[in-house]
């Protein structure tokens, strides 16, 4: 894979795999022990036949050890409780504590799928407590196996499915199930062997609806999955005293995989937290006075909101590692996006208005794309730390709050060409569209009260700005929106808190990890990373001074490894405010070292042969980290403008050298160097650089495409359409019928493989052409 042109590290890469482990999550790192357990006949056959999932997009997923253990314990509990006639009691169930982000959906899916095949089981009900989870879970189930689950949109449909022998797995909400029970006393379904699996089993299952369900069904197994269980320590004081904890409601714990386990296994990321307590205050107000303020109205003082928004805007690119410019059609392809959690609807409105005000005078390309969503919820996390769920019903909003939300949705419609509003169905579709735009990085920041803080997963989201009191369950849930693994650039979840939540954070980590978990769940202090960084940079400057060639494979390999460490440390340090101005390496030095690094990367890929393996087999090139800060065409054109203005004044030589240096340090511009330098040579003093660049690139692109068409005897019109589609979609489409339309006819007497070879050769040439001209127009 090291020699593959398009290889990049993602969550599916080797770097993100984990060890095989035992039932207590202890890694089995010894090869002999691993072979004995993994390759035992019953283990290997179970993995191949029961614990693999071929997704709808043809990806084979193998369940991780903790997922397999949890599934097996559910199956064992069903078998034992059936044999011992315990169905319908707490002893027949249990709960699985797998931390947020560890793949509970896949685990619950396989559990439901395998349980549905048991001859004694009539139905499997997968129960969620919110419509947005109903939507998201259904999509996840469909991703694992089309049609494996039967979702429903109404209680009438639920009734029909419960009565259909062919509907073995049914997804429903707890509200619909409760409504069905109240309207269908004595229904025959209650007498069947029903397995009920609750996703995210927390407080909403601990009340009257839970009691109604367990009273109606006679022969059931009840299982719950949760990332943040309710223990006595974080249980509320209200409600039924016998249904306050997860164990009281669902039975004993069947398996545990905590946030500490997940971070240790690199299944989720640790958090880095900034507590911003130094925002400038209104005149006459001190920090000490602010810490004593406990009312939301005081915290929503206009000056404080203004400064929080100003800080967020100023540091947004830094925290989200966002590229400074948008690429084709305004779609940002690097960097991440963020949520802004507020304490109330009033706060959400205040912040949304302030973002609009501060960005009003900016060009559209420089504005953050900000969304807003709320419906109705309590202002704060309640006594037990659980965030009240926001449903899709906006009818409970005050007329003022609903009118404001309507206006914000109209802003969204104007931005994206949609037509949503606050009416029931359209608001639900607005939520779905907003969640998809978050996942596709088409929106930068979404201001929320409680929505999206639980049950929402987006690997592209890396930052949570917090102006809200959080604790226990709600705190971990909210923070965990940011720590899904995506690639080597995303190394932690960023939390920027405008309130002092340090004690609450430490308590929550201790509760859901262990008392020593802070060192694993939270990143180390800035000084720890900076000290190592400064030491490595000093070593770089001493051992590999610029201007001195690095010769010999041993030295080259050592340089690559050292500079890779520096790139990884810089990737972490750039999110610390203290790093600005203390980078040690100047921008020019960084560019020059990157150029050397990329030269070596290119050399080792070119020299890899069947006889001599390149050193890229045993080291990692951090190309993704260089791309995070790479030069783009806009920057080059700015330098070209300076070069044109200085032409003939004697200052143009240094600018020309700066242009070459910038190109050499950029992974995506190096293969375009001849184009850019040819353009620089062609400009005149009175030319318009931007217009001339577009004309130059259009002409060169047409010229080089015509050369490929002539050389390969392709269909000109079909090839032009094929290439236009590639530039529109962001990549060459190698499969399907489109590519066959551009190829010349092949004789039936041609040698075997001739057509396939021709197709491959054409795709390779068009791939090089695409890489050369993409993002240049």
Descriptive keywords:
Methane Monooxygenase Hydroxylase, Chain G, domain 1; 777 residues; 6-stranded parallel β-sheet; Rossmann fold; 47% helix; alpha/beta; disordered N terminus; globular; single chain
Tally of helical runs: 29
User: Quick one: overall form?
Assistant: globular
**What's the mean pLDDT score?**
78
Biggest sheet strand order reads 5-4-6-7-3-8
Architecture per CATH nomenclature, i.e. the level-2 architecture of the largest domain = 3-Layer(aba) Sandwich
CATH class category of the largest domain: Alpha Beta
Helix-strand makeup class: alpha/beta
* E-strand count: 14
- Beta-strand content bin: 5-15%
> Oligomeric form of this entry?
single chain
CATH topology of the largest domain: Rossmann fold
Terminal residue distance = 31 Å
Which regions are unreliable across 5 or more consecutive residues at pLDDT < 50?
A: 1-11, 278-282, 285-294, 324-333, 609-619, 626-630
If you compute it from the alpha carbons, what radius of gyration comes out, rounded to the nearest whole angstrom? 29 Å
State the share of residues found in helices, binned by percent. 40-55%
């Amino acid at each position: 894979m090291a020699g593959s042109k398009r290889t990049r590290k993602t969550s599916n890469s080797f770097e993100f795999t984990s060890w095989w482990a035992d039932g207590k999550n202890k890694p089995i790192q010894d090869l002999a022990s691993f072979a004995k357990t993994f390759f035992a006949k019953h283990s290997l056959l179970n993995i191949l036949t029961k614990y693999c999932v071929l997704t709808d997009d043809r990806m084979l997923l193998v369940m991780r050890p903790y997922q397999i253990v949890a599934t097996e314990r559910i199956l064992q509990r069903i078998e034992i409780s059936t044999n011992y006639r315990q169905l319908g009691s707490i002893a027949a169930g249990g709960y699985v504590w797998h931390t947020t982000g560890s793949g509970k959906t896949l685990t619950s899916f396989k559990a439901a799928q395998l349980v549905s095949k048991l001859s004694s089981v009539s139905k499997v009900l997968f129960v969620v407590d919110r419509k947005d989870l109903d939507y998201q879970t259904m999509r996840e189930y469909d991703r694992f196996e089309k049609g494996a689950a039967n979702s429903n949109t109404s209680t009438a449909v639920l009734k029909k499915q419960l009565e259909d022998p062919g509907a073995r797995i049914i997804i429903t909400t707890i509200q619909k199930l409760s409504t069905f029970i109240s309207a269908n006393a004595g229904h025959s379904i209650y007498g069947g062997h029903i397995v009920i699996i609750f996703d995210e089993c927390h407080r909403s299952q601990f009340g009257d609806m839970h009691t109604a369900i367990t009273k109606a069904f006679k022969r059931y197994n009840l299982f719950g999955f949760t990332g943040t269980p309710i223990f006595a320590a974080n249980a509320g004081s209200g409600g039924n005293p016998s249904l306050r904890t997860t164990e009281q409601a669902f039975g004993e714990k069947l398996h545990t995989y905590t946030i500490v386990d997940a971070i240790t296994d690199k299944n989720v990321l640790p958090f880095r937290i900034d507590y911003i307590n130094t925002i400038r205050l209104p005149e006459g107000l001190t920090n000490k006075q602010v810490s004593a303020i406990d009312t939301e109205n005081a915290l929503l003082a206009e000056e404080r909101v203004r400064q929080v928004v100003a800080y967020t805007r100023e540091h947004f690119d830094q925290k989200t590692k966002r590229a400074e410019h948008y690429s084709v059609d305004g779609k940002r392809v690097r960097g991440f996006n963020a949520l802004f959690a507020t304490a109330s609807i009033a706060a959400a409105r205040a912040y949304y208005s302030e973002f609009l005000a501060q960005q009003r005078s900016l060009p559209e390309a420089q504005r953050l794309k900000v969304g807003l969503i709320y419906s109705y919820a309590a202002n704060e996390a309640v006594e037990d730390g659980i965030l009240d769920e926001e449903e899709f019903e906006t009818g409970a909003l005050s007329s003022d709050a609903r009118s404001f939300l309507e206006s914000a949705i109209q802003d969204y419609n104007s931005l994206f060409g949609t037509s949503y509003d606050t009416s029931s169905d359209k608001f639900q579709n607005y939520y779905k569209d907003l969640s998809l735009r978050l996942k596709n990085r088409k929106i930068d920041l979404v201001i929320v009260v409680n929505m999206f803080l639980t049950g929402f997963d987006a690997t592209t989201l890396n930052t949570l700005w917090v102006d809200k009191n959080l604790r226990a369950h709600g705190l971990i849930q909210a923070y965990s929106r940011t720590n899904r693994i995506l690639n080597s650039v995303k190394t932690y979840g960023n939390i920027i808190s405008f309130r002092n939540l340090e004690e609450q954070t430490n308590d929550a980590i201790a509760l859901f990890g262990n008392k020593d978990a802070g060192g694993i769940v939270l990143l180390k202090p800035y000084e720890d990373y900076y000290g190592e960084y400064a030491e490595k940079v000093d070593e770089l400057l001493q051992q590999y001074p610029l201007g001195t060639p690095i010769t010999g494979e041993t030295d080259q390999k050592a340089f690559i490894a050292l500079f890779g460490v520096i790139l990884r440390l810089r990737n972490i340090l750039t999110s610390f405010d203290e790093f600005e101005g203390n980078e040690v390496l100047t921008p020019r030095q960084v560019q020059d070292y990157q150029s050397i690094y990329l030269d070596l990367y290119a050399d080792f890929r070119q020299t890899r042969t069947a006889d001599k393996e390149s050193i890229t087999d045993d080291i990692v090139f951090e190309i993704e980290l260089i791309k995070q800060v790479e030069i783009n065409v806009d920057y080059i054109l700015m330098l070209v403008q300076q070069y044109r203005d200085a032409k003939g004044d004697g200052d143009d030589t240094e600018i020309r050298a700066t242009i070459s240096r910038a190109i050499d340090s950029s992974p995506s511009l190096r293969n375009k160097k001849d184009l850019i330098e040819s353009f620089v040579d062609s400009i005149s003093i009175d030319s318009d650089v931007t217009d001339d660049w577009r004309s130059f690139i259009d002409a060169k692109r047409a010229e080089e495409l015509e050369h490929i068409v002539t050389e390969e005897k392709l269909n000109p019109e079909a090839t032009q359409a094929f290439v236009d589609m590639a530039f529109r979609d962001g990549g060459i489409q190698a499969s399907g019928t489109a590519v066959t339309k551009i190829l010349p006819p092949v004789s039936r007497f041609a040698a075997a493989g001739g057509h396939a070879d021709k197709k491959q050769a054409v795709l390779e040439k068009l791939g090089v052409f695409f890489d050369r001209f993409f993002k240049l127009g």
